[in-house]
Amino acid sequence: MAGLATTFGSGAMTNAINEIEDAEVILVIGSNTTEAHPQIARRMLDAVDKGAKLIVIDPRRTRLAECATLHLALKSGTDIPLLNAMMRVILDESLADHLFIDMRTENFAALRAMLYRLDLAEVEKITGVPLSDIRRAAQFYARARRAVICYCLGITQHICGTANVQSIANLAMLTGHVEKEFTGVDPLRGQNNVQGACDMGALPNMFPSYQAVDNGDYREKFERVWQTRLPATPGLSLLDMTHGGPGGPIRAMFVMGENPLRSDPSLTKVEETLAGLEFLAVSDLFLTETAALAHVVFPAASFAEKSGTFTNTERRVQLVRQAIPPLGDCRTDADIIIALSNRMGYAMAYESTAEIMEEIALLAPIYAGIRHDRLQNSWGLQWPCWNTTHPGTPFLHKYYFTRGKGHFVPNDHVVPAELPCQDFPFLFNSGRIYHHYHTGTMTRQSALLNRECGEALLLIHPDDAARLKVRTGDRLCMASRRGAVEIKAEITDQVAVGSVYTNFHFGETPINRLTIAAQDPVAQCPEFKVCAVRLEKL
Asked: Which long-range contacts (CB under 8 A, 24 or more apart) does 95-102 make?
């Protein structure tokens, strides 16, 4: 989501979740919303019931795609040419909002020049989507008074993830579908409170509130309050840390609430790195695969055992109240961090989470007006909230963008790092399912959820299955250049010929042994969504 940083601030949702219900057109790209964000999908389907047009851009025929007015089943990794073609149609049919473009944006001439060089017949060939459908999608979106774009990891988890997001921003600005209610660009965050973690500086190049660590003024402010020297250069990315190998850039690691031995790409390399560390500590609710490798494990308290705040995908800061005391030897995340800090020589003491919130308000301008007392009897406040009388901000960019004017960034098609070939003829994609979450650390503890979905299934098109003499239930070996897993087949036309799909929730089928560690050069997000595999019936 870093691609929206210069135009849309942090990459958070520009608008509120409830606004989706009253949009006239909803464009969903790179999001299996009904399974990954069911409460947001409910708003989308409510809007459809009210007459909204739903456009789904997804390689698979998902449940949401079955409810769509228009489903564009593009080939994985071709989002940029598809979005560019939509924008070309908008220009050709005089559907652009030139008043908005003139008043609120810059660099439009460069985007227009790139779009007029576009060969639409070539785009149809690259994406696999009929030009007639691309034209209809562009017309629906541009002609609407209230249109919203929702996207998720199917957009960002590519080597061109930043450019994908920039292209979405280009489309929204070209039509003026920002700055007002029931419109905007809404990235759907993949995990609970991941928005809050980013807001608080859990990024290698940012202090809280997206204040760059290499900015001397910001650094001086934090050093003055925290009474310590802070680094002037950004830290390491995830892959820099987990793919360094023995003797890599780090010697020790502390992992909180993460299971990289299941969630990171090219797991063989991750195992090599973690096993080669001089010291590994893990804090988690259960003994994950990563925790089992650790020298020290801190048992962490769950959400029900602690107080504090979560910031959700619509920038809403909500108060969480402790329901029960931590069980056994479990401690809250804050208690663990404070105790470690004190043991390592930096004195840290807070009387309550409310006091921590006051420090956040002091140092993070977008949280300046948020205090626990304001959150006590409310549904929360959406940042930016500039002072203690500010009501919060339901939608962003009403008068200006964070950088002033919105900047159009022309982008050409970027071919995925690895495509099918004779030895590895299938295009592999992975994602989430409704019954389980991420690496299954919590959901796999539920007998009910395991009963509903107890193993990974590989979706294969009937034509491919017939050629391989595979039936539903057959066990397959699926291999890439990096590893292999055993998996059961499910024959379905939800996927295209030449493509296969499964989820990554099951430790018994560690899918990320197959995925590639190529990453976006700006956001440094791995390309989880595209790699080449071969199949053998066992």
From this structure: 95/138, 95/139, 95/142, 95/143, 95/175, 96/142, 96/174, 96/175, 97/174, 97/175, 97/176, 99/176, 100/173, 100/176, 100/179, 101/173, 101/174, 101/176
What's the Cα-to-Cα distance from 448 to each of 36, 37, 443, 445, rounded to whole Å?
Answer: 19, 20, 9, 9
Among 44-58, 62-76, 218-232, 425-439, the minimum mean pLDDT is found in 425-439
Q: What's the pLDDT band for 8 if we cut at 50, 70, 90? A: very low
Average pLDDT, whole number, for the chain? 93
H/E stretch holding 168 reads: helix 161-175
Which structure tokens are listed for 191? 């995990």
CA–CA distance from 278 to each of 246, 247, 274, 314, 355 (Å)? 9, 9, 9, 40, 36
Is the model's pLDDT at 5 over the cut of 50? no
Over its C-alpha atoms, the chain yields an Rg (Å, rounded) of 23
> How many Å apart are CA 306 and CA 321, to the nearest integer?
7
Rounded distance between C-alpha atoms, residue 382 and residue 374, angstroms:
12
Question: Which residue range(s) make up the domain with 499?
Answer: 426-537
pLDDT (0 to 100) of residue 401: 81
Q: Are residues 154 and 199 in the same domain?
A: no
| 326, 353, 382 - which closes a domain | 382
Who contacts 406 (Cβ-Cβ below 8 Å, separation ≥6)? 7, 104, 105, 106, 169, 173, 178, 397
134 and 78, same structural domain?
Answer: yes
The tokens for 346 are 């930096």
Task: State the total domains in the chain.
Answer: 3
Judge if 222 and 167 occupy the same domain: no
- H or E segment to which residue 186 belongs: strand 185-187
Whether residues 319 and 439 fall in one domain: no
Asked whether residue 341 falls in the same domain as residue 454, the answer is no
